[in-house]
Amino acid sequence: MVIEILTLFPEMFSSPLEHSILGKALQKGLLNIKVRNIRDYAFDKHRQVDDRPFGGGSGMLMKPEPLAAAIEAVRKERPGIKVYLLTPQGKLFNQSMARQMASLDSIALVCGRYEGVDDRIRAHWVDGEISIGDYVLSGGEFAALVVIDVIARLIPGVLGDEDSCVEESFSDSLLEYPQYTRPRNFRGFKVPDVLLSGNHEEIRKWRRRESLRRTLERRPDLLDYSELSEEDKRILEELKREKKRIG
Ligand code: ADE
Fold first, then answer.
1. What domains can be seen in the chain, in order of their start residue?
2. What's the whole-model pTM score?
3. Pocket of ligand 1, candidates 85, 131, 134: which has the most ligand atoms within 8 Å of its Cβ, to mutate?
4. Tell me, what's the pLDDT at 168?
């Protein structure tokens, strides 16, 4: 898979892309990331990339010409590429969007800076807009890194054991169950007995129940998207009754 990044701050991508899972994905050639500096597509004398907003107001906007030229260069090299603008006004990024994006051959992530980008770019040059959360970053660079990290984990072969993300949070829209490692007793806080029992069926059941419990307590909204078995639904009813009793 190819990810094109369009940014005014290409240096922001060097270190994060060198390490850990992302670094390995690049090394193995499972992921190819190309970072382009939008300033390289500014062809006026001063290579200007920003300008004042028409109608007044504070701050600077990213000018349309360099952005359009950069996006057009990417589209020319990679026909069919999907181009996304990172902006707090975009669609809220989630695991299912990531899954859909990971299935594509190539995507481009355009990082906005300053107070925003000329709206004609949003309206006519990109295929979609993505927000990573309801807060304002100083630019789309960190957002792009988040998107890349989430997508990379979904590319077959990137994670050591191909199935290791199958059971993780959100893969079936439930939060993860609690996990423990040694020691069994840490300053008086003990690991649940069932996990030490060696009874795989009991462990599986306990984990599913704790996933459901966490999701019900912390993110009940996620239950609407989950594929729940009849057994899951029965456990949820039980957990709700338990909660009412205990208060
Ligand atoms: N740029 C600034 N804030 C952002 C956000 N929350 N998501 C994506 N891009 C952004």
1. 2-152 (3.40.1280.10), 169-246 (1.10.1270.20)
2. 0.93
3. 131
4. 59
